[in-house]
Amino acid sequence: MTTTLPGLLDTDAIRKDFPVLSRVLHGDKPLVYLDNAATSQKPQQVLDALNAYYELHNANVHRGVHVLAEEATALYEGARDKVASFINAPSRDEVIFTKNSSESLNLVANMLTWADDPFRVGPGSEVVITEMEHHSNIVPWQLMCQRTGASLKWFGLTDDGRLDLSNIDEVITENTKVVSVVHTSNILGTVNPLEAIVRRAHDVGALVVVDASQAAPHVPLDVQALEADFVAFTGHKMLAPTGIGVLWGRLGLLEELPPFLGGGEMIETVTMSASTYAPAPHKFEAGTPPIAQAVGLGAAIDYLNALGMDKIAAHEHALTSYAIDALNGVEGLEIIGPKTAEMRGAAISFQFGDLHPHDVGQVLDEQGIAVRVGHHCARPVCLRYGVPATTRASFYLYSTPGEVDALVAGLEHVRRFFG
Amino acid sequence: MKLDSMYQEIILDHYRNPHHKGLRDPFDTEVHHVNPTCGDEVTLRVKLDGTGADAKVVDVSYEGQGCSISQASASVMTDLVIGRTVADALKVQEEFLHLMQSKGQAEPDEEVLEDAVAFAGVSKFPARVKCALLGWMAWRDATTQVMEGQK
């Protein structure tokens, strides 16, 4: 029996585009891929774009006058145009290609570590993050604070997996220079009320960085509506290859802030004693960039746009509601994070009785079901909720109610196995 | 089924009824080890009698949280090292390490490893090898610290 829910995409058609989804594991178990918050699978259209790039156009970009160099440059810069349009950036020059979200966040932290006034961060300055950040939005700021003498502060979490903003005026103060916050938690699934944070941060003159790694693949992302100063996300979670990420930043800031990595392509002129720099975004893209990967990201964006980000969001919302209801019906299972689908993404973490997530994940794997187990690079969240680790199921545009049913059946098998 | 080669009944028995669990006095040193990829943790105490390699392992006690593999492996480890000399216990530890690094290729020596042979299947699952080694590495670290302190 196939479950249908209002708002679902035509997953039968979509799944035909993803070769890996037809894999059968352990003899006769169809792959049930529920690890989309870790990385997404890739449609044939993206694989074809990568192949076509290497088969027909491969060259280094922004140098050389031959045909291939010009084609490669046009494809690479064309991908930048697609990203800019995808996130409604006012200017294509605000889109910096990186290798992933971690690099994007490290890049912002390093721009600010080396910045002069009025952006200088030093003793007495405060940097604000939250307790639900991925390690990639914690460690760069810890490093920055160690190097500059600034202090790190953070918002705590409520028992139901939301940000505790009750003390927002004490956390974000006149001393705050940067607030860096996750749009959608990779472990809790929580979607954060960024508007209140952005308003308070801007009121005190602080810059706002948004980690949109779990948002860009799943919901319409409009950097102008967000009103943040920097937004980071990664390609591989949104159908693109690994090795390509994005940092969007306000052009005025990118013009003012210093480069981090030095090298080829980021310069204007170089002498043995000093250099001047290319304008943004190239100022922040030293060395040969991930060209094919950027082209793959462009193809991924085409695929997402053809489906429509609003429709993808509706699909995942319907599926998440269905999954939360189904998982709440599993005896001994406790969801770690919001227990309804409101203001929530498509990643659901849970505890299953007193079984360790490793054991849960291993026995699910034996049934062809791929979930993530561990602390999901968000160990402070596990500490906050007193769990060593969680099991996480996360959905994407090709996920189906049938896969949720398979997960529930799989968990019953896990219970019997260790029973 | 392949999974059964990892979750042997011996392993599940030790998981459900772990041996020597709980932190006890007296002890010479205490260590805390974690498996950062998954959040498994163990706090482990060692009590030796004597000095050097001939010292006897009088007690190993531990508390931890983790998967069945890490918990069962710690339980089996205490059975194997308590009552032995440090030198003998280290030989067992090395044999177990060799087994876990074998990717399923080693033929475990049941004379040496006793219940620990049940972990041979775990060595085929790279993500789980660290789980099986957690307690053993904590014991080795603690024992080394005690012996260093005796110098």
Automatic annotation (TrEMBL), chain A:
Superkingdom assignment: Bacteria
Alphabetic keyword roster: Pyridoxal phosphate, Transferase
CDD domains in the cross-refs: SufS_like
Catalyzed chemical reaction(s): (sulfur carrier)-H + L-cysteine = (sulfur carrier)-SH + L-alanine
Domain Aminotransferase class V residues, every copy: 32-407
One annotated GO biological process: cysteine metabolic process
Name listed for the protein in its UniProt record: cysteine desulfurase
Native species: Yinghuangia soli
Lineage: Bacteria, Bacillati, Actinomycetota, Actinomycetes, Kitasatosporales
TrEMBL record, chain B:
Taxonomic lineage of the native organism: Bacteria, Bacillati, Actinomycetota, Actinomycetes, Kitasatosporales
Gene Ontology molecular function, alphabetical: iron ion binding; iron-sulfur cluster binding
Entries under InterPro entries matching the protein: NIF_FeS_clus_asmbl_NifU_N (IPR002871)
The protein's name: SUF system NifU family Fe-S cluster assembly protein
NIF system FeS cluster assembly NifU N-terminal domain boundaries: 6-131
SUPFAM superfamilies: SufE/NifU
Provenance organism: Yinghuangia soli
Pfam family, any one: NifU_N
GO-annotated biological processes: iron-sulfur cluster assembly
